[in-house]
Amino acid sequence: MDSIKTVVNNILRCNFTSSNSINVPGLTSNQNEIDHFIEVNHFTSSFLDLLKAKHEHPYEISFGYLFDLATFVNEHRNLFKISKQLNQSKKYVPLNEYSTNSEILKYWNSVSNEGTTVGADVISLVNDMVERKGNYSFYTNKVGEYFLANLIEPMLKVNPQVTLPFPGLKSINHAIMENLVDTNVIRTKRSLKSADLTSLDDVLSKIADKKVASTVSVVAVPPDISQQTLNDLADLKTITQFIYLTGINYLNTHNPSVLNVDLSVPNSVFNFRKELANSEFLVITRGLTGILGLVESSGYDYSKTSKTAEFRLEFIKDLFKDFVFPESTLKQLTSVLNNTLDELKDIKIEFSDLHEKLNMCVLFHYFDDEMGLPGVKIPKTRLFYLQIQEDSWRASLVCGTLEKINFTMSYQDFKYSLYSEQMNNLRANIQEYMNKLSGSQLENIKKLSPIAITTDK
Q1: Cα separation, 302 vs 409, whole angstroms
Q2: Closest CA to 206 of 246, 242, 252, 250
Q3: SS3 170
Q4: Is residue 192 part of a domain?
Q5: Over the stretch 158-183, which tens digit does the pLDDT of each residue have?
Q6: Last residue of some domain: 185, 213, 231?
Q7: CB 376 within 8 A of CB 355
Q8: Measured between alpha carbons, how far is 144 from 322 in angstroms, rounded to an integer?
Q9: Considering the domain boundaries, does residue 388 fall inside one?
Q10: Tens digit of pLDDT for each residue in 335-347?
């Protein structure tokens, strides 16, 4: 059993990266390490206990379940930079003793460099595990429920400094989402501080010259547009520009070489698009939590074989299957996809690694009816984070020369609501941040992060 536990433990660490961690200044020293607040062995043990209860062997279930769980094991809300001494002393503390351990309680209440407490981050992480929906979310949900009962509830009972209520397992998800708004606004304000920002004027001007666009962004507007809808539409455009600009800033800090885009070197453009998608994904899921409230997240595997002439439209229909769109709207969305594919086709991408995936973000903004308030439209956002297999992506570029296409990818689907009130409170901060970071390139940013507008009727 120990060997099986070691194998599962290693799989759950598969996507660990230290750069994804959050710094906790009050708990660092001269020697620091990256800590999983909920240790990997706690994830492993609870997962194996569930399998044992179901009389299943870990080698007999799909790896998709483990990879889905690993997403949360190594998520930024579970990774914190702390002193080596604290990390080593914490490793073997049983989960049910966290709430009685004075060092861990201090850790739980500590404020990170993002302006939130460690405890608030861990609560939101576990909540998202319980809410997770997808083909392989079953064990993620069950492990999340285990952590709610054996970690979150005991910590909140003995810890008066954490103000988030724990009304019970059945209603904790709604309660946490409501109370995390204030915490997430703190984080967003923190990320918008512009005092230490360095202008990206030179970097942005070089990218603008190459005319390499950003994440695919689309908004579906209702046929009868009110003044409030126009205001919300303007905010969605601002948010899209903010995501692009902050994504570039992240790359400039952590991976500046990828910004030296050379159109004569096809893989240079490919790497830029891929890394920009990754950084924009971080911006949306970490830097905008005070404005975009996560309603639901899920993960899926997608595989389809279709005639090449029908592939792109069928792909759009599958991706937007939750929406009742007319054929005309679906064709408009397909044209947006075509534009992106054609841009990549024109540069004749050559893959250096046969198994290299292309990561891609698709932002879809739309307006939903508010229950009980006829005519009131609430702005919402869907983030599709696609990881497309190399052979599928290459085939999609040249599908006009093929009879059929086999398309395989995995993707994560995040559903957000726009907090209009918080956007009002933070709009000036966002604009100041963008002005300082973009220098004289703000107009180019608008061109490189466009929103394609379509109708939802």
Answers
A1: 5
A2: 252
A3: coil
A4: no
A5: 764 443 333 232 333 333 333 444 44
A6: 185
A7: no
A8: 26
A9: yes
A10: 666 665 555 555 4
